[in-house]
Structures are given as structure tokens and as C-alpha cells.
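Morning run. Coffee first, then this:
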Amino acid sequence: MKGLSVSKLRELDDMAKEIGLDERILIENASSNLSKVIDKLNLGKKVLVVAGRGNNGADVLSCARKLFSSGYDVRIAIVSEKELGSEVFFQRKVLEKIGCQVVTFNNNTSEIKKLFEDRDFILEGILGIGIKGELSHFLKEVINLINESGKRVVSCDIPSGLSPDQGIVLGQAIKANYTVSFIAPKIGFYLKQGLDLCGEIFIVDIGISRDVLEELIKREKGKE
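And here it is:
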């Protein structure tokens, strides 16, 4: 499947919202498909979920709830030096209400390493396609800890730290065993370092397929 640029992916995402699928619905749809892929991979039942502050983080937190509800032993860490995005804040609140412990780390990685103990695999959604510039020292350290953990890693949408358009590492990037990508693969998966970082790639939709979204965009442009 051909990789798409960030601008094209944004266009598809905007069309999904235009037809009534708001951000929260898209997150729920995407995370449902992510959880289905994880279940089929048979990686074990003990997972550490590492989320960032943006919508990529919200995707994995929503997925964490679904895994927890289907019998997984879920441990959750949010890593962010800035204020959490509204969707991450919402997902964290729901998780806490159903009894999932969520630990937030702002600038210290010394306690994060303990969370890896006895986990079968890691699901990460630290950074998505909105990544800009080189990562902070803190996020580089978090990613380095994940890479050195010896655990199998599932990346949500894109390995964190990889440029989606250029395939270059922005200071440090996750080396994933599996990447579950939404709507379409990213161009960067097939360029430069991207070739070595994604592992096995799965493409899932967000509750509506890429083909349908592209057809709707075509129709709209035909009316102009």
C-alpha cells in the first residue's frame, strides 16, 4: 500500500470530521481496531501502555481501557512535560474511574524503568504524525528505556520519534516490533531509518475506510 504524506492524512481526517465523526469518535474507532490487532498477535496478557500528551496518547489510553475490559493486566504511564491534551485528560479520567492506575511522569525517568518489570509487551503512543523538530531530552530518555527494555513493542500509528514524511529519526525513535497504523502507511515508513523501525506493519481504519474518504473528497472537489 502506498504511503501517504501528513498533509494527505490530515485531509482524510478532516473529511471524517466533516461527515460527523468527531475526534472522540475517531479515537474510539481507531483504538478498537488497534486492540483487535493486539489481541490477534498473542503477545501475552501483561501490557505496559506508555502514552504521550496528544491524540496518539489518547488512542493508546482508549485501547488500554478495551484491553483491561477484555482481561489484560494493564499498567499505564503518561509521559509529558506539558499540559495534557483534552482527549488524554478525558481518557485518563475514565481509566481512573474504572480502577486502572495511571502514573504521570513529567521530567524524571528513574521510576519508569520499574514499570517494565513482569510485562509481556509495551504499547506506545508517545508521539504521532504531528511531531515537530527534535525530541526533548526527557522523551529521548523514555524512548531509550523502552528500546533497551527487551520487551516486544507495539507502536500506535507510527513509531514515536520517526518523521512521518522523511523517515528520519528526530533525536531518538522507538524500534517497534509491530506498527499499527491508521488509514494508511506513512511515507516515512519506507524511507531512510523508517525501514528499520516499524517492524511488521498493520493498517486499520478509523471507523471509515481510506477509499470511502478519498471518494468523498473527490466528490466535494467536483462540486467546486
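The helical segments are 6-18, 23-41, 55-69, 86-97, 137-148, 194-197, 210-223. Good start to the day.
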